[in-house]
TrEMBL record, chains A, B:
Record organism: Paenibacillus aquistagni
Superkingdom of the source species: Bacteria
SUPFAM superfamilies found in the cross-reference section: Homeodomain-like, Tetracyclin repressor-like, C-terminal domain
A Gene Ontology molecular function term of the record: DNA binding
Name listed for the protein in its UniProt record: Transcriptional regulator, TetR family
Keyword presence, DNA-binding: yes
Amino acid sequence: MTEKFFNLDEEKQARIINAAMKEFSDHGYAQASTNEMVKQAGISKGLLFHYFKNKQGLYLFLYDYAMQKMLAEMEASMDWAERDLFMMYRRIVEVKFRLCRVYPDMFNFLKVANTADTNEATPELQRRNEQLISKWYERMYRNVDYSLFKEGVDVQRVIHVLRWTMEGFSYTQLEHMKKLSLEELDLDAMMVEIDQYLELLKQAFYRS
Amino acid sequence: MTEKFFNLDEEKQARIINAAMKEFSDHGYAQASTNEMVKQAGISKGLLFHYFKNKQGLYLFLYDYAMQKMLAEMEASMDWAERDLFMMYRRIVEVKFRLCRVYPDMFNFLKVANTADTNEATPELQRRNEQLISKWYERMYRNVDYSLFKEGVDVQRVIHVLRWTMEGFSYTQLEHMKKLSLEELDLDAMMVEIDQYLELLKQAFYRS
DNA sequence: CTGTAGTTGACCACTTTGGTCAACAGCTTG
DNA sequence: CAAGCTGTTGACCAAAGTGGTCAACTACAG
């Protein structure tokens, strides 16, 4: 079913994928409107159902597609020998931003797909990928050198602060980007800014 | 119109308010369903429109009500002479949690109401309250003693880290609460946890 | 018994839903 | 030119859902 879809003009593929992911992540599975998707993608109603037999089929396809793209990008960008926790997170944010340039709503889509009550459509898919993700986390943390931290700091809590900072920063950035000038986000400038935060936190929590 | 509503059984008032706020904050103004609200509140369709002439009337009422409740709670709980930025934020989180016990979705409601594209229903209300909020922020930061920070740390960035940490923490807490045991959130235990994070950050960024 | 206040849910006209399908355009073959 | 093939359209469908109304019900007071 999907081979035909992949023979399409790539730009059209992207338009369809992005429109559908946006609609699903904005409204959840049930409330997402296929009418709205085709309108935003600039295609006809019939075409969508020509390539995907169902709303559910489309959803499942998107879920798999997003998951695969993300894991591939991770595989390509991560350095699994990295010992510095902060640099590890730096890489993750980089992956995120790079993906957002092509698929602006992929992360939101995956987030709501993995958490929300939408999961009637993805019972076992869910669990399979949950396992996959936890394996990646394990792999990420395996080599981290915790002896770099100052004595007495609670590393678990620092990790939380770090994650919330990264998430908070990227959320505001993407929000800002979507509002004003879409697509032309300056990845380099963002990474410079991210580095400032990482430096701040490093100096706060690493031994000097 | 609203006097009649306030004569209702208080528990019923709360049921209606919470159901409506949840629906609005979950789906936005246009997509929110009055049918779903009355179902969740356990009242009949007619009753809702007996107390509020309109969907829009209901929305406006909720917006004003939430705003007023929040400001009142702030007025009661904040200490405007506080000079410690971290303690200031501690108070804010406390207000937030206390309100969430009675109105679990009030913050989400206000957040989407103030940001989202929903604002067709609230053009001037919006601006009035934006001004109000910025006044409160100004009042908050007026007395803060920035000399407490270590030399060389970028205070603006620290403030961001602090805010993202508070938001991240309360988000996970409320998520966790909603999933497992609703309503019986242990405010004291949460504040103990918050204090741990605040202590961590204080030791990181304040002069010793 | 009457009046009043609170409450119901069947009902309305209207929109939107996911999904179908006959028809069409553009292209390569013979 | 015709025949076939692929990609594409949008009018159309039954079904569900929309915001909102209203005659009728209950329950209690005078």
